């Protein structure tokens, strides 16, 4: 595919062909109906017995089935032509947009895609001081459009070639073949199931044209927004649509709660009897209001609210769910393009309603990593992606961490799968019970991470750093002098194994100063500065 071919392509020819096939399908359908009404049904009304009658009936049934199958095969050709027209139109639009922008910015694009420009600052056609950077972006857009068209071309050739072969050799009349072809077409409108391996998801996503991808984002955002293996930008687009829908749904639920029930049912022997419906009504109301407030906070950060702009660093909604305690996966900066990526797993009481505070921590880690190495880009993800315990009594259970393992492991693999260019430097970090979830996951799964940071940990399910399936020299622990959460436990044995702060555990100790259990991410605190160094891959001299 070259620039001239795509730019000058008359896409009306494909649309005309599709219209012709639609006309053919309509006519064929009418003939099939005539066959059914005038031949098959009429013969069925006659009383005809014997071997000849049975043979004729079987033959009529076979012909009817073949006619139905042929009509379906024709419809598959129409669908293939429609998809091709859509794919070529999108690619042509993207190419023309890039060429128009190039002309407007005083660049010349040659037939082979080479871009040139006037480098003389005093010239009326001077392309500017950042011309080289702009030219690279224009070249990327042109190449992407050509690749998009080539993909659409290869796809239509494959689909029409297959259907044409079915027509020429008669296999298109076979029910098994038609069923398979129908399933292949249906698969174009069905995303992989939740929990599918990220590599499989990526292969499926890349098999779609850009127009088909956009159709999924706009028409089926609920199917793709939470899928690991789909690029972050696409997930963000889908999830912003989902977020708006969820906000509307939560408001409806709040409106439909009805009037507040009376607090008491009466009294027994002078003692008031509370009304369970009153307690449940208030619980639901509080839950809905918290989730709506959290959506407002998330939207402010996503949309760059002045108070939440964080120096213009963008945020991406990688996933969320408002059911139950809810989940939220929000990244500060794009992990698909960042040099450094950290996934932060919060602990007890974390849920969708508290995600805003975890995003604030992610913002601080991005700033700290930039201070440690300003030449690289860092993405920090607040991964509220599991059902965390909501109280200290609940936080003694293994089950919350065990239930987080598959999702957290798949998410980490997904980050590697969708990352562009060379591998990023990836860190996984847990806080409080989040370290238990991280520890269990690393113990039972080989995660593609370079470093791990455990903050205020009650144990991680192993007694030595090497049992986390990573070189112990890349395991870092931190606990502030005011973090008293673990003071009730024995000196070396905590709830989930040996204290990671114990020298026998074999991890590096990060300075945490006087941080208490909840305030390691206070701006300019030594703890968050230390986190930034590890995240940026520049930990320096550590004790």
Task: Offer a concise description of the structure.
With 543 residues, this protein is α/β, with parallel strands linked by helices. It is built from 14 helices and 14 strands.
Key terms for this structure?
543 residues; alpha/beta; Ferritin; Rossmann fold; eight-stranded mixed beta sheet; two-stranded antiparallel sheet; 14 helices; 52% helix
Describe this structure in words.
The chain has 543 residues and is of the alpha/beta class. It has two domains: 3-188, Ferritin; 310-535, Alpha/Beta hydrolase fold, catalytic domain (Rossmann fold). The chain is built from 14 helices and 14 strands. An eight-stranded mixed β-sheet has the order 5-6-8-7-9-10-11-14. The chain is globular and about 90 Å long. The model is unreliable at 488-492 (pLDDT under 50).
Structural class: alpha/beta
CATH topology of the largest domain, which one? Answer: Rossmann fold
Molecular shape: globular
Distance between the termini: 58 Å
Which spans of ≥5 residues are poorly predicted at pLDDT below 50?
488-492
Number of strands: 14
Into which percent range does the helicity of residues fall? 40-55%
Strand proportion: 5-15%
How are the strands of the biggest sheet laid out side by side?
5-6-8-7-9-10-11-14
Largest β sheet strand count, sense and barrel closure: 8 strands, mixed
CATH class of the largest domain: Alpha Beta
Give the radius of gyration: 31 Å
What count of structural domains? 2
Q: CATH superfamily assignment of the largest domain?
A: Alpha/Beta hydrolase fold, catalytic domain
């Amino acid at each position: 595919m070259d620039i001239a071919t795509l730019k000058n392509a008359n896409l009306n020819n494909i649309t005309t062909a599709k219209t012709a096939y639609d006309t053919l399908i309509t006519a064929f359908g009418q003939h099939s109906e005539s066959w059914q009404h005038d031949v098959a049904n009429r013969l069925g009304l006659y009383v005809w017995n014997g071997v000849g009658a049975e043979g004729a009936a079987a033959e009529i049934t076979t012909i009817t089935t073949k006619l139905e199958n042929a009509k379906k095969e024709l419809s598959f050709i129409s669908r293939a032509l429609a998809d091709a027209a859509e794919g070529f139109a999108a690619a042509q639009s993207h190419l023309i947009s890039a060429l128009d922008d190039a002309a407007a910015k005083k660049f010349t694009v040659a037939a082979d895609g080479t871009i040139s420009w006037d480098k003389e600052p005093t010239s009326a056609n001077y392309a500017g001081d950042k011309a080289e950077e702009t030219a690279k972006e224009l070249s990327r857009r042109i190449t992407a459009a050509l690749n998009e068209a080539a993909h659409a071309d290869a796809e239509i050739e494959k689909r029409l070639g297959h259907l044409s072969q079915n027509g020429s050799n008669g296999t298109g009349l076979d029910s098994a073949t038609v069923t398979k072809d129908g399933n292949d077409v249906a698969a174009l409108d069905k995303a992989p199931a939740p929990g599918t391996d990220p590599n499989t998801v990526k292969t499926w996503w890349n098999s779609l044209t850009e127009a088909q991808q956009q159709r999924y984002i706009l028409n089926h955002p609920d199917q793709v927004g939470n899928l690991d293996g789909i690029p972050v930008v696409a997930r963000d687009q889908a999830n912003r649509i989902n977020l708006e829908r969820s906000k509307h749904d939560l408001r409806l639920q709040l409106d439909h709660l009805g009037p507040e029930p009376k607090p008491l049912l009466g009294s027994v022997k002078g003692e008031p009897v509370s009304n369970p419906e009153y307690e449940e009504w208030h619980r639901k109301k509080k839950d809905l209001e918290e989730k709506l407030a959290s959506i407002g906070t998330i939207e402010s950060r996503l949309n760059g609210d002045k108070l939440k702009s964080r120096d213009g660093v963008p945020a991406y909604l990688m996933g969320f769910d408002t059911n139950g305690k809810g989940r939220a996966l929000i990244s500060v900066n794009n992990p698909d393009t960042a040099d450094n990526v950290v996934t932060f797993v919060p602990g007890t009481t974390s849920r969708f309603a508290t995600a805003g505070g975890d995003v604030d921590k992610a913002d601080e880690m991005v700033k700290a990593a930039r201070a440690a190495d300003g030449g690289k880009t860092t993405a920090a993800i607040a991964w509220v992606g599991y059902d965390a315990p909501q109280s200290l009594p609940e936080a003694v259970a293994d089950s919350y961490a065990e239930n987080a393992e598959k999702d957290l492991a798949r998410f980490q693999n997904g980050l590697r799968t969708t990352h562009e260019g060379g591998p990023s430097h990836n860190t996984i970090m847990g806080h409080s019970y989040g370290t238990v979830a991280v520890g269990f996951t690393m113990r039972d799964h080989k995660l593609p991470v370079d470093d791990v940071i455990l903050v205020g940990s009650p144990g991680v399910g192993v007694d030595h750093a090497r049992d986390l399936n990573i070189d112990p020299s890349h395991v870092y622990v931190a606990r502030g002098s005011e973090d008293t959460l673990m003071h009730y436990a024995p000196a070396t044995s905590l709830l989930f194994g040996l204290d990671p702060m114990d020298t026998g555990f074999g991890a590096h100790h990060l300075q945490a100063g006087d941080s208490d259990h909840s305030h390691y991410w206070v701006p300019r605190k030594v703890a968050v500065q230390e986190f930034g160094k590890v995240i940026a891959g520049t930990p320096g001299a550590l004790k």
